[in-house]
Amino acid sequence: MASHRRPKNPSRTRVTVLTATAAAAVALTSQAAHADPKPTKSEVKAKVDKLYHEAEEATEQHSLAKEKQEKLQKQIGAIQDKVARGQQELNTLRSGLGSLAAAQYRSGGIDPSVQLLLASDPDSFLDQASALDQLTAKQAESLEKIQEKQRSLAQERKEAQDKLKDLADVRKTLGEKKKKQQAKLAEARQVLNTLTAAEREKMRQDDVRASRAAGDRVELGNEVPASALGAAALQAADSRVGKPYVRAATGPNAFDCSGLTQWAYAQAGAQITRTTYTQINQGTRIARSQLKPGDLVFFNNTTHVGLYAGNNTVLHAPYPGAYVRYESMNTIGGFQAAVRI
Q1: pLDDT by residue (tens digit) across 46-89?
Q2: Helix axes 122-192, 41-107, angle to 10 degrees
Q3: What predicted TM-score, i.e. pTM, was given to this entire model?
Q4: Catalytic residues, which ones?
């Protein structure tokens, strides 16, 4: 029998499809309207600068841990050498004690009073008995020296074990800081990649122009240096303008921030320590109002350092991806302290 089912109205089907399509379009438009807008160049720069400073903080902590590692390795080597020499001395004392014991055994096989009665020459026997007493006293002295040396060796071995544990902890810290620094740099690159190549180049050129302008202001300031030493260090650092920032680099063709200050003062004839955390404790602490060219200036919780160049400007190695340059202290921000070497 033929079917008498009523067919669907095609116009109604089209209306349903069109309605669904329109709703989806409205939803997408709404999502687009509420999506985060693309960050501006200044917002990207602020974010990148923050990430670079965090990466530099990890770099300084890495350098501090590496410095401690090298120090521990030297200490452990010295202790181990001392233990080896002590063991040789102990072996020599034990060998001497064995010789004394053998001599005593050879001389003491018969009771001394019986030996005296049997001796053909009593005077000779008495001389031997006196020598035997001296031998016994020397043996006791050797035993005391052996016990003292054993205690000393035990203490030195414990000290070496403690240093080795410290070294293991420091090596773990080294790995953590390196990983953190690399993560911050990777994040900074991701943020930079939200800009076009032209925008990134414009940002770089802006930094170059700002550095030149800051350098010109320094020359116009013509301030008197803190000392001949400070002037020589600043002059040495000036010769490195344009050299790249490289993590843990100490020159002469690449630097991190504390690597530049250490290198500059070395050229001036003064040896200062490696990291911001130790450089801040050298020389004389001064107020910001007392700054003179050549002084060390610290920023951002002592994680960054530069040389004061005059006219509120520092010469420094800023962060990864940048170059040694002059920059206004107001631009860097986060002034922490100042030190005069």
Answers
A1: 787 788 778 788 888 888 888 888 888 888 888 888 888 888 88
A2: 170
A3: 0.59
A4: 257, 304, 316
